[in-house]
Amino acid sequence: MATPTQTPTTAPEEPDPFYYDYNTVQTVGMTLATILFLLGILIIISKKVKCRKADSRSESPTCKSCKSELPSSAPGGGGV
C-alpha cells in the first residue's frame, strides 16, 4: 500500500500569477529610463535656449519667467 508521500498528486497546472520574464522587464525599464532621461535633458536645454533668444530680442514674459528661475541672468546677478 502506498502512502500519500510516495504517490505524486496530480493537481491541475495553473500558471503562476507572479512569474515575470525578468529579461523583458529589465529591457522595458531601461528603455523607459533612457527616454525619460533624454526628455528631461531636452526640456532643460529648451528652456535655456528660449531665454537666450528672448534676451537678444526684447523683454518678453517668457524671458521674465526664466530670469526668476535662473539666478545668473537676474539683474546684478553676474551673468555671462
TrEMBL record:
<dbReference type="GO" id="GO:0006813">
    <property type="term" value="P:potassium ion transport"/>
</dbReference>
<dbReference type="GO" id="GO:0005886">
    <property type="term" value="C:plasma membrane"/>
</dbReference>
<dbReference type="GO" id="GO:0043269">
    <property type="term" value="P:regulation of monoatomic ion transport"/>
</dbReference>
<keyword id="KW-0406">Ion transport</keyword>
<protein>
    <recommendedName>
        <fullName>FXYD domain-containing ion transport regulator</fullName>
    </recommendedName>
</protein>
<keyword id="KW-0597">Phosphoprotein</keyword>
<dbReference type="InterPro" id="IPR047297">
    <property type="entry name" value="FXYD_motif"/>
</dbReference>
<keyword id="KW-0739">Sodium transport</keyword>
<feature type="transmembrane region" description="Helical">
    <location>
        <begin position="25"/>
        <end position="45"/>
    </location>
</feature>
<keyword id="KW-0325">Glycoprotein</keyword>
<dbReference type="InterPro" id="IPR000272">
    <property type="entry name" value="Ion-transport_regulator_FXYD"/>
</dbReference>
<keyword id="KW-0633">Potassium transport</keyword>
<keyword id="KW-0812">Transmembrane</keyword>
<dbReference type="GO" id="GO:0006814">
    <property type="term" value="P:sodium ion transport"/>
</dbReference>
<keyword id="KW-1133">Transmembrane helix</keyword>
<keyword id="KW-0472">Membrane</keyword>
<dbReference type="Pfam" id="PF02038">
    <property type="entry name" value="ATP1G1_PLM_MAT8"/>
</dbReference>
<keyword id="KW-0630">Potassium</keyword>
<comment type="similarity">
    <text>Belongs to the FXYD family.</text>
</comment>
<keyword id="KW-1003">Cell membrane</keyword>
<keyword id="KW-0915">Sodium</keyword>
<feature type="region of interest" description="Disordered">
    <location>
        <begin position="54"/>
        <end position="80"/>
    </location>
</feature>
<comment type="function">
    <text>Associates with and regulates the activity of the sodium/potassium-transporting ATPase (NKA) which catalyzes the hydrolysis of ATP coupled with the exchange of Na(+) and K(+) ions across the plasma membrane. Reduces the apparent affinity for external K(+), an effect that depends on the presence of external Na(+) and voltage. Increases the apparent affinity for intracellular Na(+).</text>
</comment>
<dbReference type="GO" id="GO:0017080">
    <property type="term" value="F:sodium channel regulator activity"/>
</dbReference>
<keyword id="KW-0813">Transport</keyword>
<keyword id="KW-0740">Sodium/potassium transport</keyword>
